[in-house]
Hints:
The chain has helices spanning 6-17, 43-73, 75-81, and strands at 37-38, 41-42, 85-88, 91-94, 100-104, 109-111, 124-128, 131-134, 149-153, 156-160, 174-176, 181-185, 198-200, 205-207, 222-226, 242-246, 251-253.
Amino acid sequence: MEPFDIDEYRDEDDDDNNTNETRPLGVEPKRNPLTVRVFGLPLRKAAAVVIVVLLVMAVVLSLTSSSHDKASSDTSVAASTTPGPVRLFGTSYHVASTTDVYRHGHRLKGPFPSEIGTLTALTVLELYHGALSGNIPSEIGLLSSTLNVLVLKDCGSLNGTVPSEIGLLTALKVLRLEDDKLSGSVPTEMGLLTALEELLLPNNQLVGSVPGDLCANPQLKEIRVDCPPDPSPVACACDNVCQCTSHETHEEEEGQT
Ligand SMILES: *[C@@H]1O[C@H](CO)[C@@H](O)[C@H](O)[C@H]1NC(C)=O
């Protein structure tokens, strides 16, 4: 911007009224007396404005199209870098607004994607009768403040230990992990699930014991483990809520373990 000059301002007004006026060269060396005006601006300024507008439009267009490309074709990268949609089990989920994921059947296959932890609004995650493999990702603990229901039932070859991050899911009311291939000890961090009403663990290769801390939860309705003489039964010592499933006969019977 040139500093404001009242004389030059008057000259411009004069130009508007007398476009054919000529000036002696040297009196006003900066101004070209034959300046062509576009929208009331000298040609060069008008051209500069048009170029700036075009550049801004180009930048905006390229930004919107590149985020669209990411959303539609490269969601695994987008999920880790931007809060766009995330692709789970062959379906796209919007990160900020997905509250429920219920899935079962043939598309539930391959490793359990760690991107599950990006669904920050999730309240219900129910996966059953699938062909998942590998571990439950520790990122499941990132769903802490929202998740009420977690069901991973008969998911195929879901194996490994139950991640200790499960103890971060302090809003959980229902935790069902039955009929998988989970092994190792029941994590003591499960005792932190103070909202829990239902805990189902039968038909895995889990060992250890249900954390005694859970027994103090007044809202606890049911804890279900394998009945003995399972080769590696999980001990449960909460009065009145511990039940067991005998999966040789698929008959359910009540009893203390
Ligand atoms: C889990 O299953 C995979 C094959 O799906 C296997 O490679 C891995 O060793 C298993 N892990 C455990 C702890 O059993």
